[in-house]
Amino acid sequence: MQRVSKGAAVAATEALRRLFARLRARWPQLLGGTMAGTAASGAAGAVLPEDKAETIYHVYDGGGVKADGPALLVRKTIADKVSLSAQYYVDAVSNASIDVVTTASPFKEKRTSYDFGADWLVRDSIVSFGYYKSTEPDYVAETFSSDLSHEVFGGMTTVSLGFSRTKDLVGEKGTPGWIDKAEHWQYRLGLTQIITPRWLMSANFELVSDSGYLGSPYRVAYVFGAAEQERNPRTRTSRAFKLRTIHDTGALVARSSLRAEYRYFYDTWDIKAHTFELGGAKYLGQSFLLDLGLRSYSQTKALFYSDNASAVNQFNSRNRQLSTFRSTSVAAKLSWTLPAWKPGLDAKLTGVYERKQFRFSDFTDLRTGNAYRYNADIVQVYVSATF
Fold this sequence. Notes:
The chain has helices at 6-26, 98-103, and strands spanning 30-31, 34-35, 52-62, 65-78, 82-95, 107-122, 125-136, 139-152, 157-172, 175-196, 199-212, 220-223, 226-229, 235-248, 256-267, 272-284, 288-299, 325-337, 346-364, 371-386. It is mainly beta and 387 residues long.
């Protein structure tokens, strides 16, 4: 199962997670997206992420794909200057997706990933380094990343930049060794601004340059109704801009917040995508935090994508992820702060449920002749403890 630039995407997500973790550390009231009351006054300077241990069990079921497995995360600060983290993630995958059932046989596989990180506090800056490796029977992705965040204007503004390099080895079942490889270079730039004690905004830019094998040896395209191996370009450059805002709405509804996010993506394959997200969080009593979110995504197709090409071209793909489609998702998260049984230990039990809908405009389900669509359910249950 191919996952082009998966390592780079994980590195970007981890960098953003670290940034907001530091903001939460500066604002004790900011928990899970909710600003309860006002932000702490005064500048506290850059802060390392909290010491933490977390265990997660996740389930994904949709589009003929079922995946589940555990994940473990441990983070520890050393001498108040360095924070080290390690994460282990496992997926047991049963794949009977539309690509598989129409061109091959369903299969099962296991994939594992390791993630190691180090954050170094230097005055008002945090320097971060990361290593990530994901292994599947026919695919290996390895990522090295570095990030820098610096607080200015008395801690009211945080500027961040980062870089990641991912190397992929591509294999094919039944073929010894690796059949090809790919590289992904990712550059990140971000700005987070405290507008008021109750209002936070951020802007981020990302550039990704891909080269090498950017397709799947198992996927076919159609030309005049005849199947042939897909042919993708061996280079791709993408850019993305994201704006995000979080506002404490405690003046209207006690201990609540609202957030909004917009992301625009475009690349040299002529794909353009828009993502909108709205969400809110509210404390229920002293121990429960409810977070609800709604997300909408839409994209145009790649230049060389075709459901059934009417001409022989240099490049041709029927990858549904390169087609024109829309998706919507609704998510709910409930966190319960467990009763304290040891001083200095803050433990939480969290459950997350997300429902996704995918609707494709120009990708046909060969079994029915209709435009393909499917739903997916995602469930996560995890226990976390900060100390």
